[in-house]
Amino acid sequence: MTAKPKVYALSTCPYCKRTRRFLDDHKIAYDCIEVDLLDDPKQDEVLDEIEKLTGRRSFPVVIIGKEIIVGHDETKLRKALGL
Amino acid sequence: MSAGTTQERVYCPVCQAKFRLNEKWKAGDIVVCPICGQKLKLEKTPEGWAGSRPNKGDEKEIRDRVDEYARIKGYVFNDMKEELIQGLLGKARRFGDFYCPCRMEHVPEFMCPCKPTRGGDVDKLGKCYCGLYWKKT
């Protein structure tokens, strides 16, 4: 695995929190963007990016290499991270 | 028309719909909106009957609403309930009201219980968008 995983999350979403907790518990370094806390222009840009990647606006979105995981899914996270 | 009701209706500021006024009700009474479960204080306004939110934005308001709505509809919760309530409280703190914690949009139709939920999503899909309300199995 080369690039650091990237997490798109909502600050109020408990499933996003679970995903982040999972990564923290497994000592995985990642970048996280809390989309709802961005200012409007940046938020539009990021939402467009998420829609292009996933076809919807659902959270969390985790990008691990070429893998895109939508929703909190520990099985998929483990597989993508080789845990 | 059933006994104890009138043709007059009460406007609910949460679900933005009107429900039938019971003729025994009077201004100042606390009633529960049968559509969204919100507790409302009845007020007679020049435009007609309306309900105000006695504990607007308080933790008690959303906890009561969520429990009342589930009771009215016969829905149940799972172990995510408390985390989702915390998410709703976060929405109120940051965005001014109890919008769905799993949605980006802070608009009235996504105030909990959101419009798709009130429209029957739980009965159709087994749960609401964020997984707070579940159909009893």
* Fraction of residues in H or I helices of chain A: 40-55%
| Assembly type | heterodimer
Q: What is the largest interface, and how many residues per chain?
A: A-B, 14 and 15 residues
Residue-averaged pLDDT of chain A, rounded?
95
Low-pLDDT runs of 5+ residues of chain A are: none
| SSE topology string of chain A | EHEHEEH
Give the strand content of chain B. 15-25%
Helix/strand structural class of chain B: alpha+beta
Number of helices of chain A: 3
Which class best fits the helix and strand makeup of chain A? alpha+beta
The end-to-end distance of chain A, rounded to whole angstroms, is: 12 Å
Cα Rg of chain A: 12 Å
Helix run count of chain B: 4
Which overall shape of chain B is indicated by the principal axes computed on the Cα atoms?
globular
Helix-strand pattern of chain B = EEEEEHHHH
Protein traits:
heterodimer, A: 83 residues, alpha+beta, 4-stranded mixed beta sheet, globular, B: 137 residues, 5-stranded mixed beta sheet, 5 strands
Question: Short description, anyone?
Answer:
The complex is a heterodimer of chains A (83) and B (137). Chain A has 83 residues and is α+β, with helices and mostly antiparallel strands. Chain A contains three helices and four strands.
What does this structure look like?
The complex is a heterodimer of chains A (83) and B (137). Chain A is of the alpha+beta class and 83 residues long. Helix content of chain A is 42%, strand content 19%. Chain A has 3 helices and 4 strands. In chain A, strand 3 and strand 4 form a beta hairpin. Chain B is α+β, with helices and mostly antiparallel strands. Chain B is 28% helix and 20% strand. Chain B has 4 helices and 5 strands; from the N terminus they run βββββαααα. Chain B has helices at 59-73, 81-95, 115-118, 121-125, and strands at residues 5-11, 18-22, 30-32, 39-45, 48-52. A 5-stranded mixed beta sheet of chain B has the order 2-1-5-4-3. The chains are: A alpha+beta (83), B alpha+beta (137). Chain A binds chain B through residues 10-15, 17, 35-37, 47, 57-59, and chain B through 80, 83-84, 86-88, 90-91, 94-95, 101-104, 130.
